[in-house]
Structures are given as structure tokens and as C-alpha cells.
Specification:
By secondary structure, the chain is an alpha/beta fold. The protein has two domains: 8-206, Vaccinia Virus protein VP39 (Rossmann fold, 3-Layer(aba) Sandwich); 216-274, Helicase, Ruva Protein, domain 3. Helix content is 34%, strand content 19%. It contains eleven helices and nine strands. The protein has helices at residues 8-15, 31-40, 58-65, 81-90, 126-134, 152-159, 169-177, 216-228, 234-237, 245-251, 265-271; strands at 27-28, 48-52, 70-75, 95-99, 115-119, 143-151, 178-186, 191-192, 199-206.
Length: 275
Amino acid sequence: MSNGLPPLREVISSHGLSARKSLGQNFLLDLNLTRKIARSAGSLEDHDVLEIGPGPGGLTRALLMEGARRVIAVEKDQRCVAALEDIARAYPGRLTILQGDAKDLDVSPHLDGPTRIVANLPYNIATELLIRWLQPNMWPPFWSSMTLMFQREVAERIVATPAQKSYGRLSVAANWRCDTRIALQLPPGAFTPPPKVSSSVVHFQRLQDARFPADPNRLERIVALAFNQRRKMLRSSLKGLGPDIADKLEGLGVDPTRRAETLSLEEFCKISVLA
């Protein structure tokens, strides 16, 4: 029980909330685990928390129990709204439920800073939402930190460093403007229904400024070109930028025979001027 609310398994049963694969749903029902996730986000007092895909509200309850000033929960599945409304009644004035697709909703009118994003993201939209939050039109963004659940493979790509097998576009996008770390590992059995893969919670702490100066659009283009053909040397993967790309790379102090996976963040930022 939490604040007079019934166990989550009862909620799922009474509201007919079987997880839907089409919505990327895998529910976390263990309140000890959801409270661990909430605590890994840092202090929630005096913060609004944006949660995407709350489902029956396991993490929602944990965020409120851990002291979030307000939780703004975005849920696409109409079936889950009644269960979330029960939580809202148990925590008067602290839970706002927005029914709709997180990719289409403008949540900014509902948030008062400082804001943290904490979510067990639906797997089918997790990377798309992450990229959107990492690449806003203006930096710093509306959030001060993000604590997000991903498939373990995606989490490893986010925190990877140069020369690691998982190092790629997500690694550069995340670590250019954030400190990232894996905060928790969760086995498939932690979820209902159990997914086929393990999961990880990644914490992103926003930096006030990017680590190294670069134009975001140019950097994104260079990184995409370089990693789209990651086994090729830079002089080949970036040849679309001009016939003299090898000379330009050398002029910037970067060996054109290197591959994308060996470049540091600073080097990517340096060569982004060529895009």
C-alpha cells in the first residue's frame, strides 16, 4: 500500500491494463525498484517532474512518495488514465495527467522550473524522445536532469567512450552537453510482462554549456556522416564534404585515415567546421 492506494497488480487487474506491445509497454510493479529509480534522479523537492508513459503509475507513485513538488505525467493509453486519476486524488494538487502522444504534446505550459525528467520510456519512442531533449533549439534546455530507462544496449551506447564498441552518434549527442552514467541495471523479470532484453536506467546531468564549442547542426551532420560508415576511414566517410577533405582534416590536426569510433568529442567538435 502507498498512501491508501491498492497494490499495482490489483490496479492492473481492476482496470484491465494488460501491457500492449504496440505501445512499447512493460510495467514496473515493484515499488522498491521504482523508488530506487526516483531516488537516483536526485532531490525531487522543489522540482517539477516530467514523466512519459506512466502506465498504471508505479513510478508516478514513487516520484510523489520521494517528494516531487509536482509530477506531470504524459500517457498515450486512455485505459491508464483512470488508474492515474486515483493517484492524483491520493496526492491532491501534485499530479497533472496529460492524455496524448508525448511526441506531439507541448508540455512546457504545464511545467515550472526547475524540472527533472524521470521515465520508464516506452521502448518504441525512447531514442526519438531522447534526441529531441538533447537537441533543443536553445541550450540550456527546460530540464536540469533526466533519469531514463532504456534497453541495456541503448544505455551502453549512450555512456560509451571512444574506442568502445558501442561508441557512436548517441554517445556524442549525449556527452557533448551532459554528464552521463548508468544508475541502475534491471533484469527482464523486474517487468510485467518481462521483455526479451535487460534494461538500464541512465542519468543525464545537464551542463550549462557544451563541453567544446561547435554549431549543433554542423556537429550533428559530421557525426552522422562519420558513423554511417563507421568502418571506413574519415577521408572516405566524409568525402561528400569535398574532394579535398583529407587535406582539410590534416589542416585541423586530424589524421584522415582514422575512423569515427576513435575520435574524441573534442575532435568531432573541431572538425564540425567542415560540415
